[in-house]
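Let's practice the habit of predicting before peeking. Look at the sequence and jot down your guess about where helices and strands might fall. Then scroll down.
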Amino acid sequence: MGTYAVRRTGQGLIVVIVVSFITFIEAHLLPGNPARAILGVHASSAQIQAFDIENGYNKALPIQYVDYAIRLLRGNLGFSYVLNQSVASLLAERLPATVILVGLSVLVSLIAAIPLAVLQAVRRNRPADYVLTGFTFAFYSMPTFWLGLMFVMLLAVKAHVFPPIAPQGGPVQILQHPQGLVLPVLTLALGNIAAFSRYLRSSLLDNLAMDYVRTARAIGSSNRRALYVHVFKNALAPVITLIGLSLPGILSGALITESIFNYPGMGLLYWNSALSQDYPVLLGVTIVVAVGTVAGSLIADLLYAVADPRIRYGRPA
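Done guessing? Here is the structure:
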């Protein structure tokens, strides 16, 4: 296990480096000029040139990336020339809000997906299974931005049930207004509910057909006991890995969701930074998301081994 963790950590570092390099190049290939965006359309050529020299934009892109990587290794994520604040402090302010949103959405997804999957597996090929399958496919196919806009229009603007804008401020202020979290969390969770329930349903059906289930029934276990004592644990273990693999999609959905509901997290920060071509913030958010995704995938793999004692990483077959 320890050898596997070390090897995966090294692979994760390589992934983070590659992601940072690709994002760095793509950000600098965006149309427009950050100097013009900051100084305004009336800035002179001399002012633009001075800005580029001060921020190192006059150098070749590979040299700019090397300079950025050196600063990154020193713990310096850069400075936002748009918000006049260090990127590290901006991320420290916005990261907790995104963690709250993503954490609540995953929790809601699991709470809803597990009983749905069990019901579908028990009622396989019956009307309840067909109806739930139709709903899950419908929500899974809906784009996040469209679903969020529909919630705003139907539940906020027309029905006045929930506020159209998420709560503002820090984590304490956000948690003090749970009603404003309902629509952002639902927008982000519904697609995950569909994915998790479909995956768990398939896993449950595969395990129900195993020999150990027939053996348990043969020695007197009821169908309910066979399902919840023998099948459920084995079927639930792969979902742990699914959550880790779903982190990139969940975080990308958080970017759209935060933009729709003006939620004060990293997604909204990234969106605004892209509009203003604030390269340091774009790169800082990307690095944090890449590290979080790699760490989540590694933790999911390790937890999978804990949940299923038959899994032993790093040992020959």
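How did you do? Residues 2-78 form one domain.
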